[in-house]
């Protein structure tokens, strides 16, 4: 019964171990796994709190005050009139009162501040996107390293099998005293070289897989099958890099700051009031504790600021101009990288054409050498050299194919790639 359960569970375990891993999935996993992605939520929460505070500008502001004073002198009327007693105010005075202020119109500052906070949020989110996009190059490099290691291992494994088959033939000849033992030893040594190269490839693949695992936060093992769906670079597509959105949002932020400065020069209208209890109250001739209140409407306007606002707006324009220059430089550098990458793609395509011809020639030579070795017209060393040349030719074509796909992917990343599951 236990054996039956093991057999039933085995296919499921293999399915998980040999799951297909797509490059676009790795991009998305790396994004979700990146710790700084949470900054986007934090920035949104900060902006929400700031906007809630801005809304309070139109809510009544209430302050409670209290004071007790003693003054050296008070106003008095030093006139003596028959039948009239003119009271005097005490030098000790007391007052407790509540004071409120209500904005009626703040010159549009609150609205401008809200728009500025939205612009700052967009700028911060764009900065996070730029940082996240840089992860893609690391993911792509690790992904294609794994593919390259796998392809090289496939070629070496195939060549090892050929040498092992030839070793059996040579060992048979040695046993029959038709061939020298050194022939078999040379083949065994070459097989060991291939095994060493395979170990190095396994180590390199393991390192690349560890990088992918750390970047994506997914469990990727050596049995996972990495697949890349070739996507031809579209030379006509416009740039869609997140840096362009960052430049735009930064310039928009300066515009909103300039608009806020303009609004700050507008007059402000507000209502105010005061209600309290003190001695004296509003009637200065009544030297008794009494209640009082007053209400009113006010206007404030800084009519002249010595061109301070104008200079601040000029500074913002200069900052915006600097951003435009940075954007222009960025576009120039990107176009340069695209031209270089396009040339790299063209070079690899030509190399693959010659690689294919080289593999055919080297394979034919190796097959001929195998026949000559059996007829003892060449040495084992000559045969091994021809097999090595064939192996190198096959490794080159496989590496160049991987590099071509990687070059195309890099072109798309440089231009700005949209990712999907």
Automatic annotation (TrEMBL):
UniProt-annotated location(s): Cell outer membrane
Coiled coil stretches, renumbered: 331-358
InterPro entries: OMP_efflux (IPR003423), TolC-like (IPR051906)
GO molecular function list: efflux transmembrane transporter activity; porin activity
Keyword Secreted appears in the UniProt entry: no
GO CC terms of this entry: cell outer membrane; efflux pump complex
Keyword Membrane appears in the UniProt entry: yes
Signal peptide extent: 1-17
Keywords: Cell outer membrane, Coiled coil, Membrane, Signal, Transmembrane, Transmembrane beta strand, Transport
Main location group: membrane
Family membership: Belongs to the outer membrane factor (OMF) (TC 1.B.17) family.
Protein's UniProt name: TolC family protein
